[in-house]
Amino acid sequence: MRGGPLLGVTLNLAALLLFVVMDTLVKLLTASFAVPQIMWARFLFGFLLVAAAIRLVTGQLPWRSHAPGLQALRSLLLAACNLMFSTALAYLPLTDATAIGFASPLLTVALAALWLREAVSPRRWIGVGLGMAGVLVALRPPFLTGETMHWATLLPLGTAACFAVYTILTRRLARIDDSRTTILHTGFAASIATTLVQPLVWSPPAFGDWGVLVLLGVLGGAGHGLLVLAYARAPVSLLAPLSYTQLVWTTLAGILVFADWPDGWTVLGAAIIAAGGLLVAVPDRRRAA
């Protein structure tokens, strides 16, 4: 594949940065719009962008799926992820929500072992346990901090669980459908579901707001497209640890845009989660050989 691993790393970092910008915009928009309306814009405009790009590049739309039910379930799971995470952003600092959401790669490893029967070494199980301990710290349970835990801190954890199942379905569908078909279906069912609820939540956007809503879809569609290109050029074991760079970007965005400085519990929890994630991501010597 042209470009090699270095280009894959660059594309992956660019995608992660786009996702942080998208989450920052979502947090800003929650002050003016209901979360389902924000999600409608993110999925509809993202779907239209992806469909137009695939049509332009390939001259066709490889729409037909051999597992349409799984494709729809995968899309709806992504919608659930976005709904919970965006709701959390209305109540939590950006860094806190992102740190807790990093339980997803760890849960994915556990599900891959249980569902896909993938071999998981003891070291990686230790990494999963360590990462979940970090999530517990970031959640700030009363028995640990003496503080009252905000109910919204559970939403990023729900996001992580749904995204872990979404990832497992993505792996499974890779054996069934063309990757372009899966990319097309990613936002389709979610677009339909969010459109159906708009009569209940719709608030007419101002002219300038339309541009931001469209930008959400562009960022989401472009980000997922860059991820696909990155994983075509570099191995998962190289790219997976890079996801933790999002903590740097979200911390900067939280400070610069919202004046939210992460407290000690968030920093400690994020560090433990990252350590567990690195234990999981580093490939086994035998397998690497």
Report on the structure:
With 289 residues, the protein is mainly alpha-helical. The protein has 16 helices and no strands. The chain has one domain. Helix 1 packs antiparallel against helix 12, helix 4 packs antiparallel against helix 6 and helix 5 runs parallel beside helix 15. The longest helix has 26 residues. The chain is globular.
Radius of gyration: 19 Å
Please report the total strand number as a whole number.
0
Portion in helices: over 70%
Beta-strand residue fraction? under 5%
CA(first)-CA(last) distance: 21 Å
Poorly predicted runs of 5 or more residues? none
Shape: globular
Helix vs. strand class = mainly alpha
Would you list the SSEs in sequence order as H and E? HHHHHHHHHHHHHHHH
Work out the helix count. 16
Major β-sheet annotation: none
Overall tally of structural domains: 1
